[in-house]
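Pair request: fold both.
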Amino acid sequence: MDKNINKIIDDCNNSNSILYVKSKAKEIVLTDPYTICHFAENVDLVDNPEIMPILEKGMISFGDIVHIYEFMFSMVECQREYFNLPAFESLIRNSKNPKLMLYCIGFVHGINKQLMIQSLYATKSIKYIEKLSDPEYDLAEEINWIEFEEQCDIARDTNYFPEVLRQYQKPGVNLLNSVLQTKNPYLINELADYLEYLRDYRGYDNVDDFLEILGYAMARCKEPLHHYEFAASITFSDKPMFQKLVIESGIIKYDYYMFEYVKGVNKGELREVIERSNDKKYIDKIGYNKQYPYYE
């Protein structure tokens, strides 16, 4: 994250000039996804029909669907009126990523749930389709349960494969090595998620060593969002290692995410880090059970 971002945010919040904030938004989109999201969360004047599209396009330009989802979630949570939610919903559906679709159904107010549910069914991912029935998600009035059971049966009989990894699925090519060579945290996480699917739903019992290799590869990426996501969604990931990396990033939001949503972390250490930050937003959130608990 840009080290000057907090001063920029303070200057914008002390200004009533849309033109000034717009000029800063144009600078911000040239930095990184973390800075864009932090700026958009903490400057109220970005909620403007001239400024929000700049930030949206800047985020999309990085081509990282996980950061796109995080921006989407954050803008809805901040109640940004001019955020283009339908456009971001479309990006998630077009990614064909069942986990992110499920996150949208569970976390993001205002989406078209029926359309997202149908898109989730189309992935044929039993791992995430069956989670729709968890009572904590309160989808009783959203789900046609006869259709749900039919879709679960179809998914159980389908050999799911992540859409984003198809370009690396070639005869005679080692999928693990191909993904590792990309050094792309999204692809690393998707392969780890797929290996857990093979273990849990297809009876493969020799994937744990590969998961450990992918965990180390993820740890070398300088991406606290992806570190958190790996820790949250990969069951036997090295939680202490990723906790250390997230703390070292200095981004309190992800310390809070680790504290609130990841099993197997040192909550006491994370609590201390959050309290020392003087970030009132996340200090107030500590210990609060969110309406929509994180999917694991």
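--- second member of the pair ---
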Amino acid sequence: MKAFFAWLFSEHNSNLQIGLFDRWHFFYLFIVFGGTLLLSVLGRKKPALKKKFLPLMAYLTVGLYAIDFFIMPLSDSYGGSISAYKLPFNICTIMAVLVPFVQFNSKFNRIKQPVAVLSIASSLMWMCYPGTALGGQPPFCYIIFQTFMYHGFLFCWGVLNLAYGEVALHFKKIWKELVGILMIFVWASFGNAVYDRGYNWFFIESSIFPFLSDAVMPIAVVVSVFGVCVVIYCAYYGLQALLRKKTAVK
């Protein structure tokens, strides 16, 4: 049994490789975006399904995040140990902690909007530039599958909240996302300072791009994440206008 699980979660289960914007990268993007679109349409046509899809995406997001800590020691991708980098100091992993609160407890409805938008923004940014999928690993090894599916479920949960009308966006309230980003910045800075092992949570300690210096990363991260939030708002308004126009024509 031990040998089976070692093979199941191994990084060396095939000769295939995944790289940035290759066919396997686009395959995962197609699965995530296509599945999200399908669930959005089904939920709008059959409102009863909303009560199933949203909790399901929340459970899958939190479940994949939690179970990863039990599987990492079985995977050679992590050297047989638990990676501290998976602690909730990155924006994506922090969302896994916040999602169950806003999904299952109405007391947190005030922060559901920024949590949903930041879930979309952070997962979308990772899926477009997946750092852990750039090393030529097999496309269906554990580390690749888990990270894509985790971000995919997180993305889907956020989008479904907008598609189902659980969260309505108003530009006058976009300051909540900015405040959320700054709070995550402070929390990540605390983690980087306390652990002091070069984890670079939230990418604010050192640059991941050759064309950006370490010094500008704190500002670049805040601006880029907030910029993606603005794009999400614009897309939301555009789709709302398109749907209203379509309804008026009918």
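Observation on the second member. The chain has eight helices and no strands.
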